[in-house]
Amino acid sequence: MVELTGNTLTLEDVKRVCYEGELVSISKDSLKKVKGSRDAVDKIVSEKRTIYGINTGFGKFSDVVIDESDVNDLQKNLIRSHACGVGDPFPEVVSRAMILLRLNALLKGFSGVRPVIVERLVTLLNSNIHPVIPQQGSLGASGDLAPLSHLALVLMGEGKVQYNGTIYATEEVYKKEGLTPIELQAKEGLALINGTQAMTAMGVVNWIEANDIAIQSEWIAALTMEGLEGIIDAFHPAIHEARGYPEQMEVAERMRNLLAGSQLITKQGDKRVQDAYSLRCIPQVHGASWQSLNYVKEKLEIEMNAATDNPLIFDGGETVISGGNFHGQPIAIAMDFMKIGVAEFASISERRIERLVNPQLNDLPPFLSAKPGLQSGAMIMQYCAASLVSENKTLAHPASVDSIPSSANQEDHVSMGTIASRHAHMIIQNVRRVLAIECICALQAVQYRGVEKMSPQTFAFYEEARKIVPSITEDRVFSEDIENLTDWLKKNKRQWTTQLNELIFQ
């Protein structure tokens, strides 16, 4: 059980809740804060004080005062009108993360919602009822208005949800679960949709997947080192300590551990004096990408525990301040940084693929073909990798440098952070496929060299991967191999992270 406080959520907690289905609960102190914040809103309404979002319109309509009898309709109209998301839905795990993050933000006690709102969000999580939320339509400022409105619709008993692997109208699932739609009251609609939880939820899922991919890239790079009889000296600790980047030193250490005991790696001067950069500079390039992931982790864990709606309520309602915490710029920049860092794993991987298949760059059979000329072998797999890498270069263009004014120029600078997070997710999927291609080629290369000469660590990886992709004895539809190995990497990500940690800390 993960207890939520509004202040202590970690990425590890998100993994447990969103990937492993762990239940959540609300701390007593945070629920007390929620109640106090709601009492403040009720007091504002009863005193007929004019406060943005409670009894005024929204955006350019902020100067329009709403009659007390209409404040509930104001919230309902807000959600329905703002539910303008389009395109394919977010992955279910992202929808689940969105509920979790929105719940955690409301528990800080600055948003003015009733306890029934946070309790319903807990029910959705613990009952695996996940809103169907279209991916496109958010500018990433004023919050993720469109995506979060689709989440809020579900609290009202409207919209669609994914439940037990099937999409239903929310009202159907509510009947099955004995749930009653919630009629939103003053401030609650705005509190649910002013926030960065769509881009942050997507960002958290991105980070979890990217972190696993980064580890897998080292296992696969180690296979390639053996397939090309790479020079181990490039990973000597003295080189990396001389530069001083912790991430670079850590990659070099992991590579040394992965290759310990291998008879396929070489020393300087054994076969050549030095390797090409795609082998020699693995710690430097991968290490720099790890730096970007570490930066992203720091920003995500701040944002996961942040109050990002507007206005925020302090001092029991005596201080209600309109600000801009819903602006997604910190996460937009972090996602753009992640895009660059993760894309580099594929960029350098594709260059290693080229070295594995190009007969002018190695002494292996041309394109790792069983019958060169008659059979093309891995020739077009390298084409595929090159195509994915090129696509990543387009996707890596920063979304955060763009802004288009909205709401009659009231909201005149926006972050495009949700676009950045979505593009980061697309890059991650491409990177995993490029790594799968490198893995297929490296498996074939070490087989030619002699798997009995591999390190015990890489041989264990080889044996598991060979269960998914058999040896290339003749040409076949390699698309199936690429997708099968990609799925295997995605499903078995924890296994190789755990094994590598055991190698280092044993």
UniProtKB/TrEMBL annotation:
It catalyses: L-histidine = trans-urocanate + NH4(+). The modification 2,3-didehydroalanine (Ser) is found at residue 142. Contains an active site 4-methylidene-imidazol-5-one (MIO), which is formed autocatalytically by cyclization and dehydration of residues Ala-Ser-Gly. Its EC number is 4.3.1.3. There is a cross-link at residues 141-143 (5-imidazolinone (Ala-Gly)). The keyword Lyase applies. It is an enzyme of class 4 (lyase). It is found in: Cytoplasm. Keywords: Cytoplasm, Histidine metabolism, Lyase. Pfam families: Lyase_aromatic. Gene3D superfamilies: Fumarase/aspartase (Central domain), Fumarase/aspartase (N-terminal domain). GO terms for molecular function: histidine ammonia-lyase activity. Pathway: Amino-acid degradation; L-histidine degradation into L-glutamate; N-formimidoyl-L-glutamate from L-histidine: step 1/3. Belongs to the PAL/histidase family. PANTHER family: HISTIDINE AMMONIA-LYASE. This is Histidine ammonia-lyase. The gene is hutH.
